[in-house]
Every structure is written in C-alpha cells, then in structure tokens.
Write a structure and sequence with these properties.
The protein is of the alpha+beta class. Helices cover 26% and strands 28% of the residues. Helix 1 runs antiparallel to helix 4.
C-alpha cells in the first residue's frame, strides 16, 4: 500500500452522511467507529422509547468529524484494510441486512396504537413482538416465502398478538380469546368459552369504571368495563377452522372480533413478548 495515502475530504463527508459511524473506518479511526456505533445504538433506543430525534445528530456529527480528520490526516500512517471505501460500505450493508432480516423473521418493535387494551396496555406503550413461527411475512409490500405456514402451537389463549384484521391493512394488537372450533359467548357477566365462564375477580369499581382480573389459558390480566356503556345482548360466535378470535381488554371501547369477525391464521404477525410502558402514557377517559 502506498505510504502517502490520505482519505478524501469529500468522500468522508458523503460516507459520513449515509453510513454515519462506518465512515470512521475509511478515515482510519476504528476506535471512533466503535464509539459512534455504540452511541448511535443507544440514541436509537432512547428515540424509540421517548419519541425523540437524537439520531439525527449523527447525520451532522459524523460527516463533520470525519471531514476534520481527513483534512488533518497524517499520510505517514499505515493504511489499514478497512480504509478502502468499499469496506465500510459493505459492512454497513451487511449490518442493515441483518437488522432487516431480524425484523422480518425474528423480532420487531411496535407501539400500541389505541386505548383498546387498557388497563394492561396503554396507547403509546412500546413492545417487541416475536415473529418466528408466524405466517404473515412481508417486505416493502411484497409477500415473502413461508407466509402461508403457521405453527399453531404458538397461538395460545390469553396471550397478546399483532395481526391484520379481515379487510384491514393496519396492524391491531389484541388478546387471543378463542381458537378454531371454539364457541364463545359474550355476556354481561363475562366471557364464556365452550360452555365454561372465564374466572374473573372484581378489583375496583370507581367513577363508573369496573376493573376485573380475568384468567384464561394460564394468563392473568386486567379488563375494563364502563357503567356508561350501552347494555349489549348476549353475542355467540363459533370460530371457523384456521381462524382466531381476538378481544381488547378495554371491553366497552375496543374494535375487535365482535365487529369484524375472526382472524385468519395467515394474517397473524407475531406475539408480544416484551413490554415497555411509557412513563407519560395516561389512562383513557371513560
């Protein structure tokens, strides 16, 4: 390698804008690469949790810092293998591919879109869904191979899932109540599945809001009912084969399978496995 090599300032700026931390490999500063990479990942997590925009700073800091290094670069320094421009580009694309693959097939972050799962989940709460073993997989609007296969054992009563309702293109977050072949009845006194009423315990009754602890499939969770809600007649549903019945925990304020029917297996995206409640999330008004 020629001993007089120096990184180009203009290329440092371009790589810093688009590759951000990876530009420091090009300018022969691997220590700064790791520092900026860790800082950018931490800021990305903070942005996701608090809804900030700290990661935008890196689109300014990285090219400016890299350009400064390039202008003051000592050509006597040995040029390392990672200083070739194609190396940081390739490593960046590899990392993006791993992230994209993880979000497509393994795990993906989401936020709760409404108050329909209150009091357990609040609007704006953040969570991670496990997608491995579920059928619905798409990338940039294209359906991926394997999207018609589902590990039915992963769908269990009482757990929370992400899915697309029938004739909807927006993701919903609800609790799975009934499986294929189940007969479910929704009564003023609670939910009945295959003739057995779900156990529930009244936790509080204040200001026209009743909170119950309900149990299903080994899961224990809270549901809310409003005294001001109009009394509904008993509704009975039979879940078709290959379909699943979902309800919101906010029983009187939830758009769920009572209104648009059971959800086909191939439209279930994943299961909620980790929840981070936002500290500023407020309880919905009754």
């Amino acid at each position: 390698m020629p001993a007089s090599w120096s990184p180009r300032v203009w290329l440092s700026v371009v790589l810093g804008i688009f590759l951000q931390p990876f530009v420091f490999l090009y300018v022969n500063r691997p220590g700064l690469f790791w520092l900026y990479l860790v800082a950018s990942l931490v800021c990305a997590g903070v942005d996701w949790y608090f809804g900030l925009a700290l990661t935008l700073l890196f689109s300014l800091l990285c090219p400016l810092h890299a350009a400064l290094i390039a202008r003051r670069y000592d050509p006597a320094q040995p040029r390392r293998w990672y200083c070739r421009a194609w190396v940081p580009v390739g490593l960046y694309l590899l990392l993006m591919g791993l992230i994209l693959g993880t979000r497509t097939y393994l795990y993906e972050p989401y936020s709760v879109p409404s108050a329909s799962m209150y009091p357990g989940l609040r609007e704006g709460d953040l969570f991670i869904a496990q997608k491995w073993g579920f059928a619905h997989r798409s990338l940039f609007g294209f359906t991926l191979p394997g999207s018609d296969r589902l590990d039915a054992a992963r769908l269990q009563r009482g757990k929370v899932y992400v899915f697309y309702p029938p004739d909807h293109d927006m993701l919903y977050v609800k609790r799975l109540i009934a499986l294929p072949g189940d007969v479910i009845a929704l009564t003023p006194d609670g939910v009945v599945i295959n003739g057995e009423r779900l156990p529930r315990e009244l936790l509080s009754d204040t200001d026209g809001v009743r909170i119950y602890r309900e149990q299903l499939g080994g899961q224990s969770y809270r549901v809310q009912q409003l005294d001001s809600a109009a009394q509904q007649p008993i509704q009975t549903f039979r879940v078709p084969e290959g379909h699943y019945f979902f309800l919101g925990d906010n029983r009187d304020n939830s758009n769920d399978s009572r209104y648009w029917g059971s959800v086909a297996a191939e439209r279930v995206v994943g299961e909620m496995i980790w929840l981070a409640s936002k500290p500023d999330a407020a309880a919905p008004a009754p």
